[in-house]
C-alpha cells in the first residue's frame, strides 16, 4: 500500500501544482524554461504513474475488504465508465457540446470513472486509488471552472458533428477497453 500511496502523491501531487502553487509554478517555468518544466513535470508524472500501478498490483496481493457492493453496481459502473470515455474523448474533439458546457470534460470524465469504480469495488486498495482520483478531479474541476469564470474564458459552441465524433470515438474506445484490454491489463473482467 505504501508504494500505491507514494505513486498517488507523486502523480496527483504534480497535477495539483497549478491549483495550489500557481505562483511557484510560474516562477519555475520562468527559471527553467517551458520545455524543461514540461520535461520535469512529465518525468515526475511518469514515475508516479509507474509507482501507483506497481503499488496497486502489490496492494491487490493483500486485499482488505471494506464493503461488499451489490452486484448491480458493477453493471452501473460499466455505464459510468462509458460516459467517462465519451467525456475524456470530448476534451480533445473540437466544438462539441460537452466541452462547451463543462469546460473541462476530461476532469468530469475522471470524476465519473472514479465514482463508478467506488460504487462497484470495496477493497481498501480500490478505495485509496479511486477515492484519490475522485478527490483530485473534483478539486481540479472546481478550481479550473472558477479560474475560467475569473478570466472570462468561454468555449466555442458545440456542433452536432463534434458531439457525434466524441460519442462514436468514446464508445469505440470504451468497448475496446471494456471487452478486451481491461482483462488483459488489469486482470479483472468488467463484463462477466
Put the structure in a nutshell.
With 192 residues, the chain is an all-alpha fold. It has helices spanning 2-14, 17-20, 22-32, 34-60, 72-90, 97-102, 105-120, 124-151, 160-186. It folds into two domains: 1-62; 65-192, no CATH class.
Order of helices and strands: HHHHHHHHH
Tell the overall outline: globular
Structural class: mainly alpha
Q: Give the strand tally.
A: 0
Helical coverage, percent range: over 70%
Oligomer status: single chain
Rounded to an integer in angstroms, the radius of gyration calculated over CA atoms is: 18 Å
Number of helices: 9
Low-pLDDT ranges: none
Distance linking N and C termini: 27 Å
What is the total domain count? 2
The major beta sheet can be summarized as: none
**Average predicted confidence as pLDDT:** 95
Strand content: under 5%
Describe the protein's architecture and organization.
The chain starts with a helix and ends in a 6-residue tail after the last helix. The protein contains nine helices and no strands. The mean pLDDT is 95. The protein folds into two domains: 1-62; 65-192, no CATH class. Helix content is 79%, strand content 0%. Residues 3-190 form the NnrU domain.
Describe the SSE topology.
Layout: H1 2-14, H2 17-20, H3 22-32, H4 34-60, H5 72-90, H6 97-102, H7 105-120, H8 124-151, H9 160-186
Helix pairs in contact: 1-4, 1-8, 3-4, 5-7, 5-9, 7-8
